[in-house]
Amino acid sequence: MEISQEEYKELNPLLFSLGYRLLGSVADTEDLVQETLLKAAQIDGKNIKNKKAYLCKVMTNSCLDHLKSAQHKKEQYVGPWNPEPIIVNQGKFDSTLEVVLNKEGLSIAYLRLMENLTPHERAVFLLREAFDFPYEEIAGVVNKNKDNCRKIFSRAKTKLSTIQEESLNYECNKSIVEQFVEAFQHQKTDELLYLLSDEVILYSDGGGKVKAAIRPIIARTNVVRFVSGIVKKVPESFYYELKNVNGQPGIVTYVDGNIHSVISFYIAGEEIKEIYMVLNPEKLKMSTNNLSTN
Q1: Is 130 left (phi over 0), alpha (psi -120 to 50) or beta?
Q2: Which of the following CATH numbers is that of domain 5-76+108-160: 1.10.10.60, 3.60.15.10, 1.25.40.10, 1.20.140.160?
Q3: pLDDT value of residue 287
Q4: Gene3D superfamilies, from UniProt (predicted)?
């Protein structure tokens, strides 16, 4: 099946966005996108009427197979699991990652939200909600009938309905993150408590590779105590930058000039509901590859 340069420009970001939403891994998604395009190039496309639907089907099935094999790894994962973050080089949307995030707004909170769904629920929900596929096409992608897909979508929506809608107002959220950082720097405890939800949760992902909290930190007093303990121990070479992380304001920290962690937030109702710290060096590799000065 031949894919023109123009088709590639449209389909490559689409497949990446679909895969990244399903897997939460940049490296795995990129591998499966290339695998999907390679498979497409090796078949006779005369009988394929809709290239986009066909490629999405191949990509979705590859992701579902990958999720099955990855489930055991997640069960054995040390501590909380967070998706791989993508740090966007604002103003220069010249890569697939940046184009996708600029258009889609794939926040870490959204990706973690997908973990509440089964793989098939995730696939049906994304194809319908994020990509507006008709149920006829979704049925062909996931190899189920149309009515079954409607039920799966409804079930997925119900599972997600209890989650408060995330604020995606970048400038408003940036102001909250800046206040959060400033309050920690000057030890303004009252301001910190005001910014954090009563039941805020901090997920610290070290993957057993580096020191991190093995369990989620729950409640704002505990979160403040945990983060304050980290701040007190940072070396002199430590510094941070506010960056666009997955389309939302986040914090990138450095030690000795090397990326140390990426911190992102779930903000709703002008409160910080969840904090995601990625410290696992393997997950930060892709962030480092995509990081450049704004």
Answers
A1: alpha
A2: 1.20.140.160
A3: 63
A4: 1.10.1740.10, Winged helix-like DNA-binding domain superfamily/Winged helix DNA-binding domain
